[in-house]
Fold these 4 entries.
Entry 1:
Amino acid sequence: MPKNHNSPSRDQSNDFRFAENNFDLIRLVAAGEVALRHSIVHIAPEYFPGWLGTLLALVPGVPIFYFLSGYLISRAWERSVSPTDYFRNRALRLFPALWMCTALSVLAVFALGYMSSISWSPVKLSLWVICQGTVFQFWNPDFFRGFGVGVVNGSLGTVSIEIQFYCVTAVLYTIFRRLSPNQFTVVLGALTVGTAGINVMSPQIAHELTAWWGSDVAGKLFQLSFLPWIFMFLLGAVAQRTSRFLVPTLLNYAWQTVVLYAVALLVDFYCWGLPLGNNIPFYLVPIMGAATLVCGYSWPNFAGKVLHRNDISYGLYIYHMPVANVFLYSGALSGLAAIATSLAVSTALALMSWKWVEVPFLRRKRSAIYPVEGVR
């Protein structure tokens, strides 16, 4: 496949360069929000005051991930020379670290003596390992219910959704490949508006599916599909398609955009009593996306100076729950000490994953937006 003709010219504006941004740091903050929230809630919920929950809600980790995914994955497709190149790059980014995390999770449940204390099936364990390392991370065998929170790595459900996003991107760009760049952007915008309704109605849809199926399986599978979240991803894709004009405009109103986002969330929560975090109302997602882009392109070298291009956000995201489960099951520490140590261990594992697993495979990527040769 030649360079995708649905990709309009970009990076021709002097106001910003697409790849010079703080997205590594933003993703790390988003992953940190998820890890901190999960660690406190599961390890020591008594240390989770309301003010901290409100503060963390200002950085809803999962919605930010989905928006940035749409922004960057759509760009990745447009830069790819073929579908094979695109999927190869996505696999190199996702699976090596995921497989290592799964292997260490299996090692942990055996090393702690949990498997020797229960009755378990080698066939189901093998099936679980395959599911964890492919696209069915949401399946959890019953014999793990006594380990930690009952799911070895519950945060991997979003990885399954992310893989679905990869496939949706390929399908959309292929179906509409004959459209002009502007026409395709309009189509993506229309799909974004249309799928926002699915997000709004997702609890009701899940309830109806549960009633129709006669169990909660159908409702849970719907919630674990891309459908309730796709509008966040598509919104990011539209932002990317219009970034040449959108980003410079937002940067002209940078502090106003960030203040508007914070005020809108607080008013939504304190005045109207509506939820925040992953359940952020759909009408706040565009403001969240705008604030994300403003933070991403303001002082674009800031993340590089802080992180030296070490992108440990993915590692922190996939490791924090297995580590938390180890502390819960072992009882080695409790309270604030357990929370702090769990987060420190997760961060250390994320850094080792980045340097020893992710970077060697990322160097094999072709047409990468962010080459890793210069990582220190």
Note: The CA atoms of residues 22 and 296 lie 4 Å apart.
Entry 2:
Amino acid sequence: MLKIPKYAQSADPSRLVKILCKGSCGKVRLAELNLPYPGKELLKKAEMHKYRARCLYCGREAVDNYNWFV
């Protein structure tokens, strides 16, 4: 089970993914998707910009869904 750090505890667990944040974090952080998590393969194959992930630490939004994971 994923241990959720304090900065992400208010997020919807069904929308959490790990991303490499390219904002002020510059490292792997938890982010919240704009849509429910569809599974690894569907997320990887989805069109760019269909899924967005907002870093729950710094707030930067990412759209490069090919390398997000749970």
Note: The beta strands are 16-20, 28-33, 53-55, 61-62.
Entry 3:
Amino acid sequence: MAALMAGQSVCEVATEFNIDKSIVSRIKSRLSPDELHRVATKKQTDFGDLLAGYLEETIITLQAQAKFFRDETWLKQQPASDLAILHGVQTDKAIRLLEAIERANGVEEEEPNLS
């Protein structure tokens, strides 16, 4: 929803987040034109601040989770698949937010120097 409100197209959002286009279209149809216009005209710094705050909370959460992952007693009680999903989702979200911040700030990925 945030990506749509930030101006990305349905196809871009579907591809970037690996979501079916019909689902993204339904989400977009729930947003009023006024909402889309209002958000589209917001300053990038507003979004940057929101993303930075959310990223900070996500990293704090990952740190707390990491403490549990080091606790062998707790770890042995958890299904490995559940731990992998939880950690993977949080890590993926943090990486996606970092990428979004880079895009918002116009940072391009550099080509690796192979020489």
Note: The helical segments are 2-5, 10-17, 21-30, 33-40, 44-70, 72-76, 80-104.
Entry 4:
Amino acid sequence: MNLFPWILLILLVLSVIVGVITVFVVKRTRRQGKTDDPDYRALFVLGICFLPMGLVLSITTENPGFYGIAAMGLVFLIVGIAHKDEWKE
């Protein structure tokens, strides 16, 4: 018995449910005026941590999946540097 199509269907349904819940929560918080600006300095620090960690793990374990962590760190670094004037102290 092949379970692969069922697993894909379950993942699709769960992702749709999470997406719908996220939309409702975001709309409710915006309606109540509780929006906060992101802390770009924290994103920069996370980028400094994730980029080298992902590169080292991908090289030492020979697992290319860790390049995703490195890419996420690079994105965090770019976003943090792009919004340097909005850093929270």
Note: The helical segments are 4-31, 40-61, 67-82.
